[in-house]
From TrEMBL:
It holds the Pfam family V-set. GO terms for cellular component: voltage-gated sodium channel complex. Residues 11-144 form the Ig-like domain. It is found in: Cell membrane. It comes from Oryzias sinensis. PROSITE patterns: IG_LIKE (PS50835). This is Sodium channel regulatory subunit beta-3.
Amino acid sequence: GGGGLLSPLTPPLFAARVCGGACVEVDSDTEAVVGDGFQLGCIYCKMRGEVRAKASGSGFRPPRNRPPLFQIYRYQNQRGEIMDPRFEDRLAWNGSKGTDDLQDGSIYILNVTYNDTGTYTCYFTRTLTYNYYEVQANNTKTVQLNVVSRRMASILSEVMMYVSIVGLQFWLLVEMIYCYRKIAAAGEEALRETIASESKDNCAASVPVPE
C-alpha cells in the first residue's frame, strides 16, 4: 500500500468516474456554491485493468498560517480520517469503496465556506503486483476550487445560458446562409444547363435538311 493525497499548488483540473468497471478520467468541477456540498474529484486509472494493485489516497491543503503541506484528509487501508479540525464533520470519502485497488480518490466537502477556496492536490501511491516483481507508481492531480455566492452562481448560470442561446442562434444563421448559398448555386447551375440544352436544340432545329 502507499499514500495518496489533496491542497494549494498549481491550477487546473481533474476529477473522474469509475463506471461499470471502466475507469475514465475527466476534468473536475472547480466552482462551488457557498453553503452547498462539493465533490473534489480525483482519479488515477490503472493502465492495465488485469494487473493486481494496491493503493491508498488522502487529501490535504495548506491553510492560511499553517505549514504548506498540512493534511486535511487521509485514506488508508479502506478507512478515511479527517486531519484538519476546520473540516471536522465536513469531509466524506466518495471514492472507491471495499477495495485496496483504489482508483477513485474523490472526497466530498459538506457546507462549503469561502475559506475552502484554494488549490487541492490529490496524491496517489500505487503498488502494481506482477508475477515475479512489484512496481511503485505515483501520481498527483490538482483542482483549483473557487467558492461563489448563490446569487453569483445564479447570475453565472443565466449568463452561460444566454451565451449558449446566442451561440446556437449564430450557428443556425451560419448554417442557413450556407444552405441558401448552396441551393442558389445549384439553381444557377441547373439554369445554365437548361439554357445550354435549349440552345443546342435550337441550333439543331435551324440546320437545313438537304433534299
